[in-house]
Write a structure and sequence with these properties.
Layout lengths: L7 H10 L2 H4 L9 E9 L15 E9 L4 E10 L9 E11 L4 E12 L12 E10 L4 E10 L3 E10 L2 E4 L5 E14 L2 H11 L19 E3 L7 E15 L2 E12 L3 E3 L5 E11 L1
Length: about 280
């Protein structure tokens, strides 16, 4: 799941899938649903990359999904160690989910994000996002191919391949079950957003934290080792999520280990990890 992942984009797709396992056990066609989510993350990341300073955050999201596949979503992020605006980023989304067959599905959507002034988030240059995804369930594991066109003051294209598996670990009672979701993801893309982040950093924007004991990462300067327009591998991501599921809610803790592609470098290129604690409630 977020899936640490990614911030604005993945929260929309995530809420539509949270209770998929429970729905598969029902003989009735699911109707319209409203899902509310609250997520704590230890560091904001954008396709596996992070800002120079650590940015723990709280995400809140509401997603309304209609029976025919149409969905609307709204979410907000609060960066916990950045003063100023009460909301660091707000986004609204709309899209449609397609069901080609029992095992083959797709999603297309648009997200508009609004960032606080001098935002330290890497993706602040790309306020708009068009996404399209395809997923196929092989029973043994589920695969997904996701494409994103992000545009605003910069323009970037991303493509990711995901493979995951949901394991049912049993239950504590008659109305719950525990799941374990291991997964792996490869992400490729362009780097115009990072190019603009470097420019904003070097101008010492207000959103950037100064060097000091509370910001030990400030001296890890990003460097560009290739043209920003070149499409290349950005990151390798391994994910593991443990969830406690009931008919109307899910409590989940997840961990992500990320290694950057060799052509995307900074002073410290060692693998980094991300931790999320999430709560979802569906009406």
């Amino acid at each position: 799941m977020i899936k640490g992942l990614f911030l604005s984009l993945l929260s929309v797709l995530l809420t539509a899938e949270v209770f998929a396992m429970a729905d598969s056990d029902s003989t009735q066609t699911p109707g319209s649903t409203l899902t509310l989510a609250a997520i704590y993350g230890n560091n904001a990341n954008y396709y596996g990359q992070t800002a120079e300073q650590r940015l723990p955050y709280i995400l809140t999201n509401a997603s309304l999904r209609f029976k025919g596949g149409l969905y609307f979503s709204a979410g907000s992020y609060k960066l916990l160690n950045v003063s100023g605006s009460a909301i660091s980023e707000f986004d609204i989304s709309a899209g449609y989910e397609f069901k080609f067959s029992e095992k083959f599905s797709g999603t297309a959507g648009y997200t508009r994000s609004f960032f606080a002034k001098n935002s330290p988030l890497l993706q602040a240059a790309n306020e708009n996002n068009l996404s399209a995804s395809l997923a196929y369930d092989f029973n043994v594991f589920k695969t997904g191919l996701n494409s994103y066109y992000a545009f605003g003051s910069q323009n970037d294209f991303f493509l990711s391949f995901v493979a995951s598996k949901t394991l049912n670990l049993g239950s504590l009672g008659k109305k719950d079950f525990i799941t374990l979701d291991p997964g792996f993801e490869l992400v490729g893309g362009t780097l115009h957003y990072l190019e603009e982040y470097i420019v904003r950093r070097d101008r010492q924007g207000i959103g950037m934290l100064p060097p000091g004991p509370l910001n030990p990462y400030r001296d890890q300067y990003y460097t560009m080792t290739r043209d920003a327009s070149s499409f290349d591998l950005l990151s390798y991501n391994a994910n593991l999520a443990l969830g406690y599921n009931r008919s109307n809610y899910l409590i989940e803790t997840s961990w992500q280990l990320t290694a950057l592609g060799k052509n995307v470098s900074e002073t410290g290129t060692k693998a980094r990890s991300f931790f999320n604690l999430s709560f979802y409630y569906q009406f």
